[in-house]
Specification:
With about 180 residues, this protein is an alpha+beta fold. It folds into two domains: about 45 residues, no CATH class; about 120 residues, Aspartate Aminotransferase, domain 1 (Alpha-Beta Complex), CATH 3.90.1150. The protein has four helices and ten strands. The strands form two sheets. The protein has a six-stranded antiparallel beta sheet with strand order 5-6-7-8-10-9, covered by helices on one side. Strand 3 and strand 4 form a beta hairpin. Helix 1 crosses helix 3.
């Protein structure tokens, strides 16, 4: 007999963006799948956008890699990363600012709740809500759906929300490149 509780799915539809978010929770795992749905009543699925697909303002998104995440984070003061087997923990002064999952090519980063909600509403094919904690909203980003300069901004903001004030003052507004 399995000791795991049954998975309890919940579905929320966002009609204005034509996306259904399906989340399944169990005590030992979290799975989220974003399915693009056609605007028709039949609910036929469209394939998700691919790297290089057209995005907002008709820009081609070339995507980022795991190396980009590490390179950008390593440019910020006192950032450490630890391989925990299934994921990497990225921290500043021993406080977590993000997680990286190599198998899924996704990164979870600390943001403000307002920024988390704005990212998910604007581009649900690229961003999803991970969780909220206090006044922070963690967001998962699919690396294939973002450019390096946007990833730099997200990592820098996660770092600023986590780093001690003295480090933030020393660094100023200088983004990693």
């Amino acid at each position: 007999m399995s000791r795991h509780s049954p998975i309890r799915p919940s579905i929320s539809l966002a009609d204005d963006v034509g996306v259904a978010v399906v989340r399944a929770y169990s005590p030992t795992s979290f799975a989220a799948c974003v399915m693009s749905l056609s605007a028709t009543q039949e609910g036929r699925r469209r394939p998700p956008p691919k790297v290089g697909a057209r995005c907002q303002d008709d820009d081609v998104v070339t995507g980022c890699s795991i190396t980009d995440v590490f390179d950008l984070a390593d440019q910020l003061p006192e950032v450490t990363r630890v391989d925990n087997g299934r994921y990497w923990r990225i921290a500043v002064s021993n406080r977590t600012l993000g997680y990286l999952w190599e198998p899924t090519l996704t990164v979870g980063l600390k943001q403000t709740i307002a920024e988390q909600l704005a990212l998910v509403a604007e581009r649900p094919e690229t961003f999803e809500v991970q969780f909220t904690s206090g006044s922070f909203g963690w967001v998962v980003a699919r690396l294939g759906g973002i450019e390096r300069d946007e990833l730099a901004e997200l990592i820098f903001e996660a770092w600023r929300l986590t780093a001690p004030a003295v480090l933030i003052d020393q660094r100023g507004e200088l983004l990693p490149r």
